[in-house]
Amino acid sequence: MKAVQVTGYGDVDKLKVVDIPVPEPRENEVLVKVEACAINNTEIWMREGAYGTDSKSGWRPEGVQFPRTPGSDITGKIVKVGKLVDDSLLGKDVVLFPFTSSGEKGSEHISLDMSFIGSEYDGGYAEYVVWPAELCFDMPLPSYSESAVFSVSGLTAWHMVKQIQVQPGETIMVTGANGGVGSLNVQIASKVFGAKVIAILGNLDSEAKMRELGATHVLSYKSDSLSKEILEVNGGPIDSVLDVVGDALFSTSLEVLKNGGKFCISGSAGGQKTNLDFRKLYLKHITMYGSVLGTRAEFKEMLNAISEGKIKPVIDKTFPLEEAKEAQVYFKNKGKLGKILLLP
Questions:
Q1: Which of 19, 120, 303, 315 is deepest in the core (most CB within 10 A)?
Q2: Which residue ranges make up each domain of the chain?
Q3: 154-290, which class in CATH?
């Protein structure tokens, strides 16, 4: 089969298109013919070594073992099953839950042995992938491409919204609202949980689309008076922030949050380190959450909401598998709206 492998930490020149054997499913696994694989920050940061030191970076302390096939947002068809897997799964269209874990129910995502497909396991930048049968779920939509945009970004966004316990009528600010996680934060907070959403992005050309996704207000982070604009459109401080940007909007977030407000972060595309005046936290009674992925139960809840039409797929562009380098370069461009897909 054709696959794209990361050969080491570094730039996109570390991505190589190779011909390798089709993997064999073990007794509790299935072989999935990959039909679509969405791109995430996770595999780019894994390649760049952003999760740790240059010599050991990944979801596990020992770092990534190269070569590794990246890709974690995967949809496809089950074409072979292991000897302990029911034959009835053959031919089923599935979306893959993106990590394994021995954590107890409800705590899978914080278990020390959490291992990610595309980082600790070979992933979806390939024509075939093997994965545990119990972690393959029915596709929420008829389309492989549309169903592939939710796994990591959607689970992350769903868990973020659940963590801050969004209530109907609350005002939530979403940073990076045009990205994979951000655009889903907008939809989930507004259309599933009934919040008012202030979407923050760079280019206001996407304002109409943001409103269609559920945003009440759309503002640009390029404004010299962003904090003032946020307070004006909301008529005062906001309830919570769902952030994927990090440093670039951190001080603004703390400034516009109400006393007792909540700040939840799942990414740091705008800077991984920041200056923090602790007085802002304790004088305003702000609660902070770090968030990555979520639980299997939350994954099922999200898939149900997608099936019911409450959350819509947002796709910016598709690439053939062989153009994984170009796709990752494009992914890092500003101004896109939604997910980037590789199609084997």
A1: 303
A2: 2-149+313-343, 154-290
A3: alpha beta
